[in-house]
Design goal:
CATH superfamily of the largest domain in chain C: MetI-like
Low-confidence stretches of chain A: none
Bound molecules: adenosine-5'-triphosphate, magnesium ion
Strand content of chain A: 25-35%
CATH class of the largest domain in chain A: Alpha Beta
Distance between the termini of chain C: 23 Å
Structural class of chain A: alpha+beta
Order of helices and strands of chain A: EEEHEEEHHHHEHEHEEHHEEEEEEEEEE
Largest sheet of chain A: 6 strands, mixed
CATH architecture of the largest domain in chain C: Orthogonal Bundle
Radius of gyration of chain A: 24 Å
Number of domains of chain C: 2
Shape of chain C: globular
Chains: A alpha+beta (371), B mainly alpha (482), C mainly alpha (369)
Number of strands of chain C: 0
Oligomer: heterotrimer
Chain lengths: 371, 482, 369
């Protein structure tokens, strides 16, 4: 177990008839990693997972687990265990039978299975509940049973398909930490699917962001959040303010953009677009709400500050959100920590905001995530 | 407004009564006739409470063998049609959407194909195949059990398929995938996951298939060969003469069905109640002397009551003897017959006098033509004047036969008051009685006799009493039989 | 089977091939037999050609589209067993028997020695017999059989309509007053006769309607009539028996359909002041249409194809068409003629059902639901 087994997708294509569900995916997942696929509903996450676990044959390309090509190997022969989107606990079997099903099919004795079930039940904090039926458990308990069942098969790779989506917020947050702990304890590779970016960022070593069958970016949570490779990633992961415009000059890793509405602004070029972006190109620049701040004196660099009219202000407990008139009807959002101010600004007031150069990224224009 | 509601309630009640009388009345009456010693299955007149027809049934070799055949065929059909239905339903859930409706149409079609067509096509096809494949297959492909199982399974599999489809709609195919993912082989996943889930459906499909096979007639009547099923034997008996031993069998079958239905319902209610209790719903825990499973479960109550009645009935059968009663009835009927004979003689004398007074005209046939098939056969010889037949020696023989053999006389007695054969004036009756007396068959309605002779019924007794067609009596009806 | 991902030739296992070979072998044998029996008559080679084309298309489609994915989801062994069972059912039990019956209906009834001989050629004689009678002559028609045919169809329709009218109120009542113990009792009472042998049900009616039967006896005792009424000859018994035999097949689909109707819809309509007739016409009946059609289809097909009830309860002058089929088959041992009559019955009743389905815009998928 320890050390972990890596998973590689090479030029993976999956088609359903004429429909392309996964387009040329190339991913290298290190052994022992907690790796997430993040993307909106219907982007092909489950499809990739089913290809890894063997329920789907790739139309093109390869799936390698531990360096071995998995072509023609059925799901029951692969060293993977899948936790289904709807858990798929066997409704007619008791909890302990569910958990040890993988031993039953290998012909383990009832006593052995009982023993192993008790160990796993203890691990998931459900001691003494082994004789219940799945219908008699709560959602979170079922969740844990599904994890125990998968772990009982001693897989090299655990695949989790949005296992937390059915839970309420509190439980979800609790299970996140629990999952991460389990992963660190057993040390096997986890491949995790979610459309919740918070989940992906908190738990994963690496994240792949997908859109409509295409993997747009792979990287650590930080990379993905701070240096998004495409407008889609920038707008899908976390909140972001977009400024459209044209490149005026490129200066090493920096670029000056003439934005449609907010004047000329300076930003760093995202690593993926360095050397690609040229003056005159259509571009999009992103600045996170929390990276914007009020200009306290007039000494701010004019190329990293902008002025806009306040539309609205919301108090959110730990912070204030200020909305200002932005590009193309969109609003610019600024988050400021609540440090005891009464209010930030009044409606209709013109406000000048500034940002640090390293917090602004620019990239070729592209499609944004749907809101 | 109020009276309107009342009126509609009465109408509804009346309608329900009529509907259920139509549905259940004949079955109740049929069951009751099993206990009447009267050799014609009826409850009016009620002769004696008796179990003799069960005795007759128990000694009927053919029926017993037919039951065995039915069971063998039923089991074969259950196995084949459950297997095919299950496979077909599984494929239906997986088949390419474009093909689904075509496929569904094909596998549902046997339900709509008339049973006779299925029977014929099965026989024809396997006969054909055996001729192609040579004499080695001859025995099997013409074997009644083999053909019947195949013929019945053709459409019974559609029924089982429907049962399985209904159940599969609630199956999550993810469960099978989960099992595979955990290392199970396909067969293991099928056996340990899908099959347990389908078990209730398989049980009900099996029962359904067995019952459908057991009661099938239309298909089986072409395929049974040398292995008649119970239904076939019953049909033969019913077509060629009814007697209460069929009622006895019917009583047993009705009882079993009632028992099964009540047991299923009781079980169902018990389960619903248990579920309600498990879900923590407040169940009225009133004190009751009834055991737990009866409480709030009318079906269980009815089941117990029904079993009690049946057991009592059969216990009675062991100690009760109807001989005394039968002797009385026989005596009464003899007396009645004697009285009737006197009356008849008296009226004949009267007729003769009337005839002498008024001339023969009024007794000539009423001008109504005899029905075509009646005319084709059994015409009274030589265009005799109808009433002349009362002087027919045959009739007199019949009469004297009735007198001479008391047993037979009592068999013919239903003809007496209240006479199902109609007026004593009807010469046809006399002929019938003569027949009954002559061949000593237990007294069947004349129509049944005619059936035996070729499926043709005698002319209607309710037609003109002087209709010559009536005269053909037993001898009539040699027309085209079926 | 699902969406095909990649169909690879290697996925066609040996068992798959075996399964697709079975029908081909059978067809080839039939073809061989046909060739031996009458050489190349145009009709026979056309039929055989069509059959082979059909099998080829089916097998090709199955092989390319279905099998590779199918075996992946179900496994080789299980997949083969399932496909084998369904192929056996569809091909050997459903299609081939119907086809060979069709084939039979176009042949002469020859003694075994002449079968396959020069006289064994295709003919329309068996169908001509239904229309023109034994002589096959000009100008005369087989009025007896044609009348039987017409009467069967019309009477079956009448029985269907009668059952519909009789059942609709009960189906509505049961469907809309759900849950109560009384309704369950009624349902149990309905199920009991449903499972009692068709023959016994006919027998029960015969007891009731016979000359010496209870109805006549009772009416005479009450003085309503003084002669027994021959219900059998008047066909009262037959129609009552046919209606009786299949009434529950009308009731249950309708009941199921009406049960799924949301009560609030009726109440809403009533609030809006709709009359009862309008509520039924606009809400209940449209909702129950699949159930009604399903019930009507079943009752019509089963009545038109009924054999037991006519044999037991039918009057002497009124044969049912199935009885003619039976007669040809079991009485005269003329299977070819029987097959032709059976085909006529099958085609006629299916045509009628499909026509009505088209008129009332219901599709096949609703049947059996
Ligand atoms: N068996 C199939 N046949 C046809 N199309 C399919 C099939 N399975 C998935 N798809 C399509 O492929 C696309 C990706 O599906 P997938 O289940 O991978 O989405 P997902 O990213 O898991 O979405 P979600 O977050 O909602 O679970 C969808 O557009 C879906 O309609
Ligand atoms: Mg998904």
């Amino acid at each position: 177990m320890a050390g972990g087994v890596g998973v590689d997708l090479e030029n993976l294509w999956i088609r359903f008839g004429d429909f392309v569900a996964v387009r040329d995916a190339n991913v290298n997942i290190n052994g022992g990693d907690f790796f997430s696929f993040l993307g909106p509903s219907g982007c092909g996450k489950t499809t990739i997972l089913r290809a890894i676990s063997g329920f789907l044959q790739p139309s093109e390309g390869r799936v390698l687990i531990g360096g071995n090509d998995m072509a023609g190997i059925g799901p029951n022969k692969r060293p993977t265990a899948l936790i289904f989107q709807n858990l798929a606990l066997f409704p007619l079997m008791k909890i302990w039978e569910n958990i040890t099903f993988s031993m039953e099919v290998k012909g383990a004795s009832s006593a052995e299975r009982r023993k192993r079930a008790d160990e796993l039940l203890e691990m998931i904090a459900l001691e003494g509940q082994g004789d219940k039926l799945p219908s008699e458990l709560s959602g979170g308990q079922k969740q844990r049973v599904a994890i125990a069942r998968a772990l009982c098969a001693e897989p090299d790779v655990l695949l989790l398909d949005e296992p937390l989506s059915a839970l309420d917020l509190k439980l979800r947050q609790h299970m996140r930490t629990e999952l991460r702990e389990i992963q660190q304890r057993v040390g096997i590779t986890f491949i995790y699917i979610t459309h919740d970016q918070g989940e992906a960022l908190t738990m994963s070593d690496n994240v792949a962001v997908m859109r409509a069958g295409v993997i747009e970016q792979i990287g650590t949570g930080h990379d993905v959040y701070d240096l998004p490779a495409t407008p889609f990633v920038a707008s899908f992961v976390g909140e972001n303010n977009v400024f459209r415009g044209r490149i005026l000059e490129v200066n090493g890793t920096e670029a000056l953009i003439r934005t449609n509405r907010s004047g000329d602004l300076l930003a760093q070029i995202t690593p993926a677009a360095r050397g690609v972006l040229k003056p005159g190109d259509e571009a999009m620049m992103f600045i996170r709400p929390e990276a914007l701040s009020l200009v306290d004196d007039a000494g701010a660099h004019e190329k990293t500050s902008l002025t806009a009219k306040v539309v609205n202000e919301e108090f959110e407990g730990n912070s204030y959100s200020v909305f200002l008139e932005g590009d193309g009807g969109k609003r610019i959002k600024m988050s400021l920590p609540n440090v005891g101010q009464d209010r930030i600004a009044s409606k209709g007031e013109d406000l000048t905001l500034k940002y640090e150069l390293r917090n602004a990224v620019v990239m070729p224009a592209g499609e944004l995530a749907a809101e | 407004m109020r009276s309107n509601i009342l009126l509609s309630r009465i109408a509804l009640g009346l309608y329900l009564v009529i509907f259920f009388t139509y549905l259940l009345g004949p079955l109740v009456i049929m069951s009751m006739t099993a206990f009447n010693s009267n050799p014609f299955p009826t409850i009016i007149p009620w002769d004696c409470f008796s179990f003799e027809w069960f005795q007759v049934l128990a000694n009927d070799e053919r029926i017993l063998r037919a039951i065995l055949n039915s069971v063998i065929i039923g089991l074969g059909t259950v196995v084949l049609s459950v297997a095919m239905g299950l496979a077909a339903s599984l494929i239906l859930t997986q088949i390419w959407p474009r093909w689904r409706s075509t496929y569904y149409t094909i596998i549902i079609a046997p339900i709509l194909i008339p049973g006779v067509v299925l029977g014929i096509s099965t026989v024809v096809f396997w006969d054909r195949l055996s001729r192609i494949l040579g004499p080695a297959t001859d025995g099997l492909f013409h074997n009644g059990i083999f053909l019947t199982i195949l013929g019945q399974s053709t459409f019974i599999a559609s029924y089982t398929m429907l049962v399985f489809v209904a159940r599969l709609q609630r199956y999550d195919p993810g469960l099978t995938e989960a099992a595979l993912d955990l290392g199970a082989t396909h067969v293991q996943a099928f056996r340990k996951i899908l099959l347990p889930f389908m078990r209730p459906a398989i049980a009900s499909a099996a029962v359904l298939a067995f019952l459908a096979s057991f009661e099938n007639y239309n298909t089986t009547t072409f395929t049974f060969g040398r292995y008649p099923t119970l239904t076939i034997e019953l049909a033969q008996k019913v077509r060629y003469g009814i007697n209460p031993s069929i009622s006895a069998l019917a009583f047993i079958i009705v009882s079993l069905t009632v028992f099964g239905a009540l047991a299923t319902e009781a079980w169902r209610r018990g389960r619903i109640k248990a579920e309600a209790e498990r879900n923590g719903e407040a169940v009225a825990q009133g004190r009751s002397i009834l055991p737990g499973f009866l409480r709030g479960n009318w079906a269980a109550g009815a089941l117990v009551l029904f079993s009690f009645v049946v057991i009592t009935l059969f216990w009675t059968a062991r100690v009760y003897s109807p001989d005394q009663c039968k002797a009385e009835v026989r005596a009464a009927k003899q007396a009645e017959a004697a009285k009737r004979r006197e009356e008849l003689l008296r009226r004949r004398a009267q007729q003769r006098m009337q005839q002498q007074m008024k001339g023969p005209d009024i007794f000539t046939p009423s001008g109504k033509p005899a029905p075509a098939e009646g005319a084709s056969t059994g015409k009274p010889a030589g265009g005799k004047v109808p009433f002349g037949s009362v002087f027919d020696p045959g009739n007199l023989e019949g009469q004297s036969g009735t007198g001479a053999a008391p047993d037979q006389g009592s068999n013919a007695a239903p003809a007496a008051k209240p006479s199902p054969f109609g007026s004593v004036f009807d010469p046809g009756n006399l002929a019938n009685q003569a027949g009954a007396g002559a061949d000593g068959e237990s007294g069947e309605a004349p129509s049944e006799k005619a059936d035996e002779n070729g499926g043709e019924k005698p002319a209607p007794p309710f037609g003109s009493v002087f209709d010559p067609g009536n005269l053909k009596g037993v001898g009539g009806g040699a027309g085209e039989g079926n | 089977m699902g969406k095909t991902v990649a169909s690879k030739a290697e996925k066609l296992s040996i068992s798959t091939l075996l399964i697709s070979i079975i029908p081909i072998v059978i067809i080839v044998l039939v073809l061989f037999d046909t060739l031996v029996s009458d050489g190349f008559s145009a009709a026979s080679s056309l039929i055989v050609g069509l059959i082979i084309l059909w099998v080829a298309v089916i097998c090709g489609v199955l092989a390319t589209e279905l099998f590779s994915d199918f075996f992946r989801t179900n496994g080789r062994l299980l997949g083969s067993v399932m496909l084998g069972l369904v192929a056996f059912w569809i091909i050997v039990l459903i299609l081939l028997p119907q086809l060979s019956m069709l084939d039979y209906s176009f042949r002469y009834n020859l003694p075994p020695s002449e079968q396959g001989g020069p006289k064994d050629v295709y003919t329309l004689a068996n169908y001509r017999h239904l229309i023109y009678g034994a002589g096959g002559g000009e100008g005369t028609y087989n009025t007896v059989d044609l009348m039987v045919f017409l009467r069967t169809i019309i009477a079956a329709m009448a029985v269907t309509v009668a059952d519909l009218i009789l059942c609709y109120p009960l189906a509505y009542y049961l469907g809309q007053s759900r849950g109560s113990g009384f309704v369950r009792l009624l349902v149990v009472l309905l199920i009991i006769p449903y499972w009692i042998n068709e023959i016994l049900r006919a027998f029960a009616l015969k007891i009731v309607f016979a000359d010496g039967g209870i109805l006549n006896a009772a009416m005479m005792k009450l003085g309503l009539i003084d002669q027994p009424i021959d219900f059998i000859r008047a066909d009262v018994a037959l129609y009552a028996g046919l209606g009786y035999a299949y009434i529950l097949l009308m009731l249950f689909p309708m009941y199921n359909a009406i049960e799924s109707l949301d009560r609030n819809q009726i109440e809403a309509a009533r609030d809006m002041g709709a009359s009862w007739i309008r509520i039924h016409r606009r809400i209940v009946i449209p909702h129950a249409k699949p159930g009604i059609t399903s019930g009507m289809t079943m009752v019509f097909m089963l009545s038109a194809g009924a054999l037991a009830a006519p044999q037991i309860l039918g009057g002497p002058s009124s044969l049912w068409f199935t009885q003619l089929v039976y007669q040809w088959f079991n009485g005269s041992l003329n299977w070819q003629q029987g097959a032709a009559y059976a085909i006529v019955l099958l085609v006629a009743s299916i045509t009628i059902v499909l026509t009505f389905m088209k008129i009332f815009k219901v599709n096949m998928g609703d049947i059996g639901k």
